[in-house]
Amino acid sequence: MSAGCITTDGEVLRREVLAHLADEVFVPAHARLQVDAAALASATTKLCETDGADPKSAKTAWLATRSAWNVTGAFAFGPVIEQMQAGPLDFWPVRMDTIEAKILEAPAAIDAAWIDGLGTSAKGLPALEYLLFAQPLPANTPRCAYATALAGDISRRSDELGSGWLTHAEHLRTAGTAGSAYASEQAGLDAVVNATIENLYRMVKDKLDRPLGNLTGSDPDPAALESRFSGTTRDDLEANLRGFAMVYLGADGESGGEPGLGALVASRDPDLDQRILAQHGVARDALAGIPDPFATALTDHRSDVQRARDEIDGLRRLIKLDVASLLGVTLSLSDNDGD
Amino acid sequence: MTGLLRLRLALARPIDAASLLAFRALFGGLLLISVIRFAANGWIAALYIEPAYHFPYWGFGWLRPWPGAGMYLEFFALALAAGCLALGRCHRLAALACFVLFTHIELLDKAAYLNHYYFVSVVLLLLLCMPLGRLRLRPNTTAPAWTLYALRLQVGLVYGFAGLAKLRGDWLLRAQPLKHWLAPHADFPVLGPLFARPETAHVMSWAGAAFDLAVPFLLLHRRSRPYGFVALLGFHALTGALFPIGMFPWIMSCAALIFFPPDWPRRLKRALGRPVPADISHVPADISPVPADSHAPLGRLALAALALHFGVQLLLPLRHHLYPGDHGWHEQGFRFAWHVMLVEKTGVVTYRVRDPASGRVFVVHPEDALTVQQAKQMAFQPDMILDYAHRLAAEFAARGLPGVEVRADAFVAYNGRPSARLIDPTVDLARERDGLAGKTWILPRPD
Fold it and tell me: pTM to 2 decimals?
């Protein structure tokens, strides 16, 4: 932990944490997404221009972009909300019928405006995953042209997000001063913590409860898994947890190193910090312990998947209850009065 | 003359009505501002129109928000009535409308409960009963003394019980929840660095308890009144600046004016250079211009009604003693008791709904069906967790699964303690009834 972020009383300063997260975590993570998305667009274009091309590089690029996107899921606030990018980039479960219909409707030369006009269910990373992984994608076909256009749209949106974060990082860094979107440092901290909680909630409910059949009281449903065509559900969840670790531990991923959220927690309640680190480790191990393939484990090793879900939920509780309480976070930004 | 008759005569003794009229004008004005602010913030829709479900108060489950534009019309009517009250027009009708409309709105959803909303309802009820109908600020305008005493007692009870509620370990020894609430305000102008220090929370906790307990008495006595009022203004200004408590500081600051001599508005007018009728200027504030034995005593029925009202006001805040354990944790007897800013709680609740016929288990995250405000409030309040369990049972029955069992995994962080289970996860809440009896399915507070 850098000495400059601690007061004489050992209190970690919020502005140091916010500045570190903005400059060393949020902006670089979105820059990574931009780079990976650009590579994906390039690889998809190449795949669709060359007859008999190996789809491996496009698939690899998709996996990298997907991973980068899921890392940013742990801090999905600011530009992604303002620009409303979550839907167009990440609508799932995939509606295959919609995508097939749009391929048939697509003009011979698909431009950015046409893709932009599509509904969220017809584009984004999951739609491109379907095209790349569900079946062979022959070059110089309308299907491949559609895939190329989707990859271009993903890259464009990633660029917008990256640019947005360059501006937004300044708001976060200067929280509490005139001109910042955050009226106080606490408001900036609220945004960070609430995004972290939301990420863990989505992991529990959308990514695990739903495919487990918990929400419907029915049998597990592999069709409800995230990234089911590429079979990388676990990678997505691990990327989400990695994003959490970057927010909590700072850019270096070390406890006691650079000042993430955990530095604030540790300075006020070292026991709670240790409980969070332990719970994060347990959740990560539980996820890693699910036998491959994930879709099969959903039915054959349901208790393992359920355990991973419960441990991630345990982590969510620690952040939403203990950390939010410790740091005085206003949950979900409700602005009603109290007394 | 019996003691009771003396009391009835004293309560009916005419006093200068000036401060009562000023109180009515200020209270009506603040109510009007509150309604406008409520509408401007979009809270009419957010709290009463958008939610698909409302958390009912026990015994008031039959109340429902008006459909369509009905809630907007109700708030509009409330604004009109508050304006009339402030201007002294149609006093009884305006006070009745304000009381009925405001209280109806507050009874629609427990998630919106605030102590100062309850205070507004209680004061409106008192105003409704006061004979202030045709009174204007003219020479010799009088009102029976009980009106003044009743308002002073009501305001005093708020501070008194708020102070008593603070005489507990969490507040005095652990400085909770202030320790948690002050720390995030380290960037507050001037005082910020102090708020970051834990000892400040301890000092402010003790000072807050002492303030609440002392201020009614400071305001009652002439010599201490200026100090008490300045302290009160400082207290409410600081808490209003630090915490999102809306109109509460304004309402309580204006309400405290009732402790000043009943002729204070005339004195103020005089001080501002406005003409004051000569025949009233010499009348001492608390002494009637009418001989004490020339007025009829307060009616027995009126006295009984006053006794009943204040009996309820004295007993309601004490009812939490009927329930074992920490009432800040289990929240039985917590509302309508002036437990103001006493707890910092956050919760997470997930339900497990089991259909005994098929054995199917459904996990329900209530956040999806509730507003942010509702989900936040219900997650740490056991009676609301029970309400929603009943709602789920009814929903499943409507979907063709009658008789489901509903269990809750509810965890709460309370006044700086590590989070812990709040509800016994083995209890089928669908079979538990709401009511005044102790809720045995609430787990004890962890140490």
Answer: 0.91
* Cα distance from N-terminal residue to C-terminal residue, chain B: 57
On the question of a cis peptide bond just before residue A142, with omega within 30 degrees of 0, the verdict is no
Q: Is the separation of the CB atoms in A18 and A172 below 8 Å?
A: yes
Q: Could you tell me which of A5, A22, A73 has the C-alpha nearest to residue A251? A: A22
Spatial contact of B232 and B256, defined as CB atoms under 8 Å apart: yes
Assigned CATH topology for domain A10-326 = A middle domain of Talin 1 (1.20.1420)
* Best CA proximity match to A90, nearest among A111, A112, A104, A72: A72
B258–A contact, CB cutoff 8 A: no
Distance to chain B for A178, nearest Cα, Å? 13
Which of B247, B367, B411 lies at the smallest CB-CB distance from A321? B411
> Is A183 in CB contact (< 8 Å) with chain B?
no
The per-residue pLDDT string of chain A (339 residues; one tens digit each, 9 = 90 and over) reads: 343 444 434 445 888 999 999 999 999 999 999 999 999 999 999 999 998 889 999 999 999 999 999 999 999 999 999 999 999 999 999 999 999 999 999 998 999 999 999 999 999 999 999 999 999 999 999 999 999 999 999 999 999 999 999 999 999 999 989 999 999 898 999 999 999 999 999 999 999 999 999 999 999 999 999 999 999 999 999 999 999 999 999 988 777 778 999 999 998 899 999 999 999 999 999 999 999 999 999 999 999 999 999 999 999 999 999 999 998 887 654 445 566
A306 token code pair: 């359920």
Give the number of other CB atoms < 10 A from CB of residue A11. 16
The structural domains of chain A, with segments of one domain joined by +, span 10-326
Residue B197 at interface with chain A, using a CB cutoff of 8 Å: yes
Q: Which two tokens stand for residue A233?
A: 């559900």
Side chain identity at B383, as an amino acid letter? D
What ranges in chain A are assigned the alpha helix state H? 14-20, 27-49, 56-72, 79-82, 86-89, 96-105, 112-116, 125-133, 142-173, 185-202, 210-212, 233-249, 261-268, 270-288, 294-300, 302-317, 324-326
ipTM exceeding 0.85, yes/no? yes
